[in-house]
Design a protein that fits this description.
By secondary structure, this protein is α+β, with helices and mostly antiparallel strands. The protein has a five-stranded mixed β-sheet, covered by helices on one side. It has one domain: 60s Ribosomal Protein L30, Chain: A, CATH 3.30.1330.200.
Length: 165
Amino acid sequence: MSQQVQSLLFLKPGQMMVSSVPTLVTTLLGSCIAVTLFCPRTRFGAICHAQLPSCGSPAGCSHEDPSHAKYVDCAVMMMLKRLRAHGVADKELQAKVFGGADMFEGSVKHPGVGSQNAEMALQVLNREAIRVVRQDLGGERGRKIIFHTDTGEVLLQRLGKSGVS
């Protein structure tokens, strides 16, 4: 049984959050990626809205710098670090991945940023052995998602072909 929702949050591009407080988090995605993580035992939920695949830093991602949440690889690792600090084991996590639309025409030889974001999210989750239980990736249409941090439920609405990023 879900607790009563304590708060509502609109997640902007480049943001992430981890919470044990029941929160409804909504965001709009085009080429960006949202990764949700949920632990049924602790009822901790986490979500990011990442814009680019990787920070590309030779030193790796800064898990302390909030501006790095705009990168898929950094954002996922930042969420994992915070969840682990709360006693969540990786094997307990359920991941869901959304977005990665290629909203603008690209070529087969050079995948668009949406495809690159989707690929990076799945690579990082696979590398960290996080189970992906649902994904809705690619295509040419944006998405609106609503994430329930206390249940892990994600409601998805596909948007008309428009300028969502």
